[in-house]
Amino acid sequence: MSAETDTSDAIDNSKPSTNYAEIVYNGIWKNNPALVQLLGLCPMLAVTSTVVNALGLGLATLVVLVGSNVAVSLIRNYVADAVRLPAFVMIIASFTTCIELIMQAYTYELYQILGIFIPLIVTNCAILGRADAFASRNPVLPSALDGLMMGLGFGVILVALGAMRELIGQGTLFADMQLLFGDIAINWKWVVFDDYPNVLFVVLPPGAFIGLGLLIAFKNYLDEREKKRLAIQKAKDGSKRIQTCSSDWAS
After folding, report:
1. Hey, how many other C-beta atoms are within 10 angstroms of the C-beta on 106?
2. Which residue intervals of the chain are DSSP H helices?
3. Is there a contact between 159 and 57 (Cβ–Cβ < 8 Å)?
4. Phi and psi (nearest 5°) for 172?
5. What is the reported pTM?
């Protein structure tokens, strides 16, 4: 699959946009990279066995998204179309390398656990897609906000899936948070179920697929319920307008 095809999945703003409320809504909910665009599935399904793993990967992806969006927006008028995508990949790779070096310096154990999925952030189509579809067409501030919201939307789903798998699979929450936050987080572990028999199936990749499917189904349910509510409200408003017009005509 070509890079052009990959990035087209993340396109939802082909024109310059400064509607900040819409940018926030698109990133967090309407066009959530994980639940709607289904991008970044490989690391999301592989490392979200615990909250700390999911949070570590989510924060790393968030920083790369914001940084690459800002950089692409700054140079958007100086890059020829022929080298646009290679230039964007180089920018994303630079930020990913910075994050990788920072994690090696300060959160080395977590870096070892996440392994290859930190450098593989470079290949995340959500990041390249936002750079190509949004940041290359918009000023710095909207581009930074777009990266932040898309990163938050992706990170929230990572953490939710990690929490679900850790709770059902191990009976705990926030285990090993010291790997990310240091000694201050040693006592953050919450044992929800004592003497809990670990459910290995949930911790393994099949459990990740099922958990993600449940999250997608829940979002679709909420969207459908909101559509029905709006349709009913629209019908009521139409009836009121008809009644008002009839009363005015009768008088």
Report:
1. 11
2. 3-8, 20-25, 41-47, 51-75, 84-106, 108-114, 125-133, 140-170, 178-181, 200-203, 205-250
3. no
4. -130, 170
5. 0.86
Q: At what angle do helices 84-106 and 51-75 cross, to 10 degrees?
A: 140
Q: Which residue has the tokens 């392994």?
A: 115
Distances (CA, A) of 11 to 24, 83, 88, 207: 15, 19, 15, 29
> Residues 119-153: pLDDT tens digits?
999 999 999 999 999 999 999 999 999 999 999 99
Tokens 């936002």 found at: 130
Evaluate whether 171 touches 193 at the Cβ level (below 8 Å): yes
**Identity at 10, one-letter amino acid code:** A
Using alpha carbons only, give the angle 168, 54, 166 rounded to the nearest 5 degrees. 10
Nearest to 38 by CA among 129, 108, 102, 99: 129
Are β-strands 172-173 and 190-191 bridged in parallel, bridged antiparallel, or unpaired? Answer: antiparallel
Type of residue at 65: L
Are residues 68 and 133 in contact, defined by beta-carbon separation less than 8 angstroms? no
- The DSSP bridge partners found for residue 172 are 191
Locate the DSSP E strands across the chain.
Answer: 172-173, 190-191
Half-sphere exposure of 111 (CA within 13 A, CB side): 14
Length of the chain: 251
User: Between helices 125-133 and 140-170, what is the axis angle to 10°?
Assistant: 160
Nearest partner of 48 among 207, 177, 248, 215, judged by Cα: 207
Q: Write the pLDDT tens digit of every residue in 94-128.
A: 999 999 999 999 999 999 999 999 999 999 999 99
